[in-house]
Amino acid sequence: MITTASTPSKFKPYTRQSIVTARQWEWLTPELQEAVQVVSHVLPFRTNAYVMDELIDWKRVPDDPIYRLTFPHRDMLPAQEYEQLRELVLYKKDDAAIARLVHDIRMRMNPHPAGQMTHNVPRVNDAPLKGLQHKYL
Q1: Is 110 helix (H, G, I), strand (E, B) or coil?
Q2: How far apart are alpha carbons 16 and 127 in whole angstroms?
Q3: CA 10 to chain centre
Q4: For residue 128, what is the DSSP state?
Q5: Which parts of the chain fold into alpha helices (H)?
Q6: How far is the CA of 109 from the CAs of 4, 16, 75, 78, in angstroms?
Q7: Is 47 in a helix, a strand, or coil?
Q8: d(CA 34, CA 37)
Q9: Which of 63, 87, 67, 69 is nearest to 25 (CA)?
Q10: 62: cis peptide before it, omega within 30°?
Q11: Which residues on adjacent β-strands are paired with residue 124?
Q12: So what's the pLDDT on residue 136?
């Protein structure tokens, strides 16, 4: 049996700005597209062609587990914060206002980034769980 090695495809990353060029972008509903564009201002988003071409079952989106782990979702932000950010991103397009709101949201999610080992330690029955850390509360 003769086999030929296929040439690996070039690494192609996707971010909030470039995801709209991926062929799979059209397969998402307008609501899912909006959520990616809005939430990714707060929670950085990056994937690549391999994940999109090989790992995500696009027939199962938005419930596909790899999609859930990779793409931002509306429910990652409280409803009021999502709506405020949505208004700025989609309609007002005010970069300074977006930056201020994103900063405020991030500070509420992780209020003291410099105190990672003291402020973000989970507790059970008021006792710290050593070796664990909450990234976002």
Answers
A1: coil
A2: 39
A3: 23
A4: E
A5: 30-39, 49-50, 65-70, 79-86, 95-109, 116-119
A6: 50, 20, 14, 10
A7: strand
A8: 5
A9: 67
A10: yes
A11: 127
A12: 57
- Cα 27 to Cα 37, 81, 108, 136, distances in angstroms: 15, 26, 33, 30
**What's the confidence (pLDDT) of residue 113?**
65
Predicted confidence pLDDT, tens digits, the chain (137 residues): 555 556 667 889 999 999 999 999 999 999 999 999 999 999 999 999 999 999 999 999 999 999 999 999 999 999 999 999 999 999 998 999 999 999 999 988 876 666 666 767 788 898 888 877 766 55
Q: Would you give the distance in Å from CA 16 to the centre of its chain? A: 9
Strand 123-124 and strand 127-128: the pairing is antiparallel
Return the CA Rg of the chain: 19
| The token pair that represents 127 in the structure block | 């006792």
Residue 106 backbone phi and psi in degrees, to 5: -60, -40
Phi, psi of 120 (to 5 degrees): -110, 20
